[in-house]
Amino acid sequence: MVVGGFAGTIAVGTALLMLPVAKVGQGGASFVEALFTATSAVCVTGLTVVDTLTYWTPLGQVFILLMIQVGGLGIMIFAALVGLVLARRMSVRARVNTASEAKSIGFDDVRGLVRRIVLISLIIEAATFALLFLRFLWGYGYDPGRAAWYGAFHAISAFNNAGFALYSDNLIGFVDDPLICLPIAAAIILGGLGFPVIMQLRKEFTRPLHWSMNTKLVLVGTAALLVAGTVYIGVIEWNNDASIGGLDPWDRVLAAFFQSVQTRTAGFNSLDIGRMHDETWLGMDVLMFIGAGPAGTAGGIKVTTFAVLFFIMTTELRGEGSVNIFGKRLSRAVHRQAITVVLIAVAAVVVGAALLMIISEESLDRALFESISAFATVGLSTGITPHLSVPAQLVLIALMFLGRIGPLTVGSAIALRSRRILYEYPQERPAIG
To answer: What pTM does this model have?
Structure first.
């Protein structure tokens, strides 16, 4: 149902974007252009093959924004919301699917869960909109209507970690403007924490001892990766005049921090990614692959999955039997789930990069960057995506779709399909290492 829901939404979005009224000039968009844009919007990725500002009409941009909002909320959550509005009731199946997508422990109060998720989304988007609106209005002299539209579009795109922008150079023109960069970065971080974390912080912000293992892992992992990404990008690019080298010291720090936030699956860029060092791309590959928190608007394998594997590794190196995290023992079933998700993700990224290299003859560094960006629903690009052939763009479409639904459906399927085996085979250990 999750796969069908996302596929159906993308199909509707593709049809809307192919309408002549959605495209500037004569005729409508081609099927591949519309499909790529719709997939990128619904999967909240941000990769584009055409310029969002000049290619799509205001109505086409509205279609994109609606797809971003639906994709960010999650298809099952959005479907539950529509059901509540229209019928004021939910079937058992709808409650189970919604609870699964929202990573809820139970499904007794799914209606309240849906309302809280929608309310949280609207509050954060409204606050971001207000800050951006005032900055566009007073700082850049936009008329009220344009300031409102640009503020709303970028606020929704930011919270949903989509990375779509109404500027041909994305946000490069605001690289040294903290009043634009910081509100967008804050919305991205909050969207990337995940709804379970946000809802627990709302109730128990002053009682960290009551926080769940998931909340602690997401908060600690997010802070560590943001700092590490900022330092890594800042140090390597410090003297690169093609990126941050020509900025003032504090602006370099701002640009490095903003770009570190984007690698957490947001996709905006205030720097020309294609002119950054290869070493920077490699570090960004790692950050994009990890992603942010589960049950939110971000992608990647999720910071909790990465953290679980890290603690499994440290436990093995210490020779301990059980994996303990923050004073709690980790369920062994989670070990297998994390390993399964990561191996599937690695396989998808490697196959995708190989296909891009074969089809378009791109270098490994650029093909790998584009592949990870698509699978992790990030949207950052070294600049090759608009110039790829149709078969290569179809590869990216498949990666975006798989990256958006893959970790969700695989993790849920493993949890729901687990069954008790009444017998075991004899134990044996192969040689490792």
So the answer is: 0.89
